Amino acid sequence: MDLHAADEQEQMILDSLDRFLETEVRPQVRKLEHEDIYPTEIVEKMKEMGLFGCIIAPEYGGLGLSTSTYAKIVARITETWMSLSGIINSHLIMASAVQRHGTQAQKDYYLPKFATGELRGGVGLTEPDAGTDLQAIRTVAVREGDHYVVNGTKTWITNSMYGNTIALLVKTDPNAQPRHKGMSLFIAEKGEGFKVARKLEKLGYRGIDTCELVFENYRIPADRLIGGVEGLGLKQVLSGLELGRINVAARGLGLASAALKEATQYSQIRKTFGKPICEHQAIQLMLGEMATRVEASRLLVESAARAFDEGRRCDMEAGMAKYFATEAGLRNATDAMRIHGGYGYSKEYPIERMYRDAPLMTIGEGTNELQRIIIAKQLIERNPA
Ligand SMILES: Cc1cc2nc3c(=O)[nH]c(=O)nc-3n(C[C@H](O)[C@H](O)[C@H](O)COP(=O)(O)OP(=O)(O)OC[C@H]3O[C@@H](n4cnc5c(N)ncnc54)[C@H](O)[C@@H]3O)c2cc1C
Fold first, then answer.
1. Is 279 among the catalytic positions?
2. Which of 198, 232, 266 is the last residue of a domain?
3. Which among 171, 192, 269, 321 is placed 20 to 30 Å from 367, CA to CA?
4. Whole-prediction pTM value?
5. For residue 126, what are the domain limits?
């Protein structure tokens, strides 16, 4: 597709997304979020719009969008309701693992089903005793003929109650040294022995299902091993992290931008001492910082997404975007609450939701502590003395 046609396609998609978010999502967010209700009807509409196949190649029935366009979609959805972006984000990380590393048979079978949302879900990496240190996972898959038998527990797995499939990280050789050589990634569809043990209660990110999963002698056909070769699981997961980080960065941007919009509006309406609070310098200082954070986040997200689309190395760029934009989301949510005074603390306004949603983005896809360590290591590697 030439650049002009790609720009037109992007604009059409973003326009129809905006209409959908304004008319069918925004009016429902408060109820769904406060009552922690899964947005079933909205998800069906998202399937019709092709959002489950955003970055899946057209030959497999997806929209084949660039990462740059995808990041704009994620930011816009998050501006309206962050939970909704989570429904496609981890699903597409699973899909992209198959797209990049799957066998041809796996691509032919799974990608069209992922693109329509017929099969949908997320990624099962984290365990009760292993998050950042993924090589410490203990879920084991033991080969028995043409199946593997899986035993173990995963926790914090998003999309696992209402979804039906996850990319499951396991140890196929728990004694391997280095540890990652014993790690493998499977496409696990729900079946006997794959149990959703409980839905976890969360501070924010409500309406979307995040659960603990227990695998008890869960039998998975050997041909679900992504790429068909054992020992590549961690590499396959890590190679998807840049895309994952760009998408979390886009969520940070969406939150930062939504908080700024609310604060900008409110500060012109609320009056104290005879004038709108936006005319008080203390409020102006906050608005000035908030707006700058939004613009800087947007530029970092765009630059990381562009590098990714052009096939350039972007581990440091994605890390910077993720770190900066998610901290911007958190700080803008806090500042917006201050600008709203007592009303920011009220459940009548959307600010309290943003304030509860924002911290998660500093944790997911590699905590922001880890991001700064990655950035520093890259800095040294790229600039030898
Ligand atoms: C709402 C929600 C949804 C989630 N969804 C998913 C999902 O769909 N799939 C999935 O697999 N996981 C999911 N997660 C899990 C998430 O990815 C982990 O929580 C995250 O990776 C951090 O792991 P942890 O919680 O075990 O923290 P830990 O790894 O125990 O870290 C604790 C603290 O130590 C710091 N730390 C750890 N190691 C280092 C180090 N080497 N140097 C410096 N600091 C360090 C961390 O930055 C953090 O501050 C979700 C989590 C939440 C809260």
1. no
2. 232
3. 171
4. 0.95
5. 121-232
